[in-house]
Amino acid sequence: MSVAEWASPVLSFVGAAVGAWLVYRVGRAQEWGRRFQAALDMLGSSDPRQRALGRARIVEICRHGAADDNGRNEALAVLREDVRGSCPDDVWRMLSDAAVESPPRLWIATDGRTRIEGDEIHVDRTVVESAVAYVDIAGGGDAAQDQVVALIAEAAVTSVRGASPLVRGASSPGAARSLPDDQRLILVKLNPDAAGLDDTTLRERARKSWRLSIERVRSEPPVGVAAVVQQRVVGAWEYLGVEPSAERPGRVEFGLGRPLPDLVGSQYGDTGQNPVRYWP
Q1: For 253, how many CA atoms within 13 A lie in the half-sphere containing its CB?
Q2: Is the pLDDT of residue 58 over 70?
Q3: How far is Cα 195 from Cα 13, in angstroms, rounded to an integer?
Q4: Distance between CA atoms of 277 and 142, rounded to whole angstroms?
Q5: N or C end of the chain: which has fewer CB within 10 A?
Q6: What stretches pass through the bilayer (predicted)?
Q7: Out of 6-20, 80-94, 100-114, 245-259, least confident range
């Protein structure tokens, strides 16, 4: 058989395979686009359940890298306007005027009314959820363009009447030991089930994958990375570096070294929604 005789069917097969792959990719991109637009439409609904589903879908689409830059920017604009439009002018003004170093104490309002009470601000839960989605898509609180929305995303959660809200960096009442103020750390908050993990699994859970500005981490490298469960440090390791996540676009992974046992057991009383934070 000559080269021409066997090359022709091979090239035909390769061409068909490439064509099928392109059709699949284009179809998948169009499907993600339809889902993304539908999610944006759901955010405009007056039904709280539809809005919650829209927020969740937008965040998930952006996490999977299925939204392009224009889509992400549109989602950020819609979520930001959702937060701004739901905040009374006096609340927004107080948050805008607050210094980053000493923000007002924030609660999630149990009665659904966003308002100012003395030096505290109570924010409707749905507003906080939109702010959390905004921060997640933006790539973390430090990467969020609107820092007022990022501040709202850290509203404290409580169901105890008369309890004092825990503010950023504050230790919980009666804490035996606080985190050292002279060490720059990155704190990652893990779910309660992480308290029962073995050392190797806990370390792997803590090191990836987080939404942070990789440029900021590299320009302001921490001493260590600490895993926090229910306001207590359950594991800490020396920071060796940071790289883009190989598994999830838009996220980072830390290189971790030797354990830092002196930090384990320290209290961190911040009950904000952001899962990864700088300290102090």
Answers
A1: 12
A2: yes
A3: 54
A4: 9
A5: N
A6: 6-24
A7: 6-20
